[in-house]
């Protein structure tokens, strides 16, 4: 069974909605909600999906600690299809303070080889996508998305592409049982800052939701509702605490990994094909996810007009928590958020 997505399918992402990336909203704050005359999304209180992902990745951090690795998973953000009935969220992995976590790269960080540029890599071993897309097509779409961020005029940060040498660059998939352990980012020096880790099957996404039940609305499997997910790994000190080397109030990013759902079929027997220039569009999703890779959160709110069921966003942005169409160009709010983070790089 193949389900084609109509133009009003909504792509939802992390519900950490705020007006600027530098001031993340505390989980549970009213501005965490996507407000609507109808119930679109609320990210507050206990959530079985969040709890399951948290437990799966907490176990991954335990294994990283046992290995003596100098990094831990700090947060995970996933995007979903609205018609799945589930909403994208952010999962945090630290009990420090009020959990207002934010992670950012440190200029000239010796743990990243002293780089002032940002290196990204596209894992070519998992680039073929459901819907008949080849690695060449998906990689080109990702490269176009990166070029859009690299072209923002206020920032001189060099975003450069690292070659895929064939050595496995992925870390998180290993800890959820879906791949080999890529060691290039486990030190002593991180090699690549942002890894587009490819299109993985249902086993990876279902493993993020242990105890899920196929066909269940209460305990759905990850392959059903997660479209893509980004992980932030942060540097830790000898006691396993996230570091803030430059005292900017943000934890230090070691690297980020982005995975795309290639379930064929998902746990409920449904296949959702990826597309180029049609929703769900690889470039549009990659543009949003690479924004997370560059430390951006979300902007604005989404709401439904009750009389016509139309979905609106205010303000409209690539980094909205959701989208209803192909969007391959950054809008003003996206650019402002990027400039707020990277405008003074590497002096900030």
Order of helices and strands: EHEEEEHEHEHHEEHEEEH
Radius of gyration: 19 Å
Tell me the fraction of residues in β-strands, as a range.
Answer: 15-25%
Mean pLDDT: 80
Your description of this structure?
The chain is α/β, with parallel strands linked by helices and 348 residues long. The protein has one domain (11-302, 328-342). Helix content is 21%, strand content 19%. The chain has 7 helices and 12 strands. It has helices at 48-67, 135-150, 172-175, 202-207, 222-225, 282-293, 332-342, and strands at 11-12, 71-81, 90-92, 103-104, 118-122, 159-161, 194-200, 226-235, 251-261, 301-305, 310-314, 322-323. Strands 1, 2, 3, 4, 5, 6, 7, 8, 9 and 12 form a 10-stranded mixed sheet that branches. Strands 10-11 form a two-stranded antiparallel sheet. α2 crosses α6 (282-293). The model is unreliable at 1-45 and 95-101 (pLDDT under 50).
Question: How are the SSEs ordered, and which strands pair?
Answer:
Layout: E1 11-12, H1 48-67, E2 71-81, E3 90-92, E4 103-104, E5 118-122, H2 135-150, E6 159-161, H3 172-175, E7 194-200, H4 202-207, H5 222-225, E8 226-235, E9 251-261, H6 282-293, E10 301-305, E11 310-314, E12 322-323, H7 332-342
Parallel strand pairs: 4-9, 5-6, 5-7, 7-9
Antiparallel strand pairs: 1-2, 1-12, 2-3, 2-8, 8-9, 10-11
Helix pairs in contact: 2-6
